[in-house]
């Protein structure tokens, strides 16, 4: 009896989340990053497949304003377009909706990598895993290998990553990342 209640509850939860995602996408129409509120911007993907980034601007008056813009970084085509990341995935992956820009710096933080590589994040949040897979590749690291080494020897896994400090630019300075090299070219 308890198992049917648990599976029924799980089914209703999944069904509710699916309807909520459809409702959000339906109310937003052709979702563009510029139309998102700042608390839904980070980790969203526009209808055109561009990743949204949150930027903070300081006005002449000294007042801070948050703006959501499309970056030039494209999401994996198999990931939903016009997608706002779920609160479940933000929490499971140890992220913050008010993150500015897109950076690989968080991959060197032990607590973040543990959450990213955990089953609730890695297995159920393909949008976030796709983003950090690409960021890790830009640093010359294969994310699945990092996750395996993180479980075996956390310090060895972290030593493989050296932060470049690069933050993906917003639309003011567009840069296309079609593919990141697995390792830097050697000089001859």
TrEMBL record:
InterPro entries: PAR1. It comes from the Eukaryota. The keyword Magnesium does not apply. It holds the Pfam family PAR1. Residues 1-29 form the signal peptide. Transmembrane segments: none annotated. Keywords: Signal. Coiled coil: none annotated. This is PAR1 protein. It comes from Trapa natans (Water chestnut).
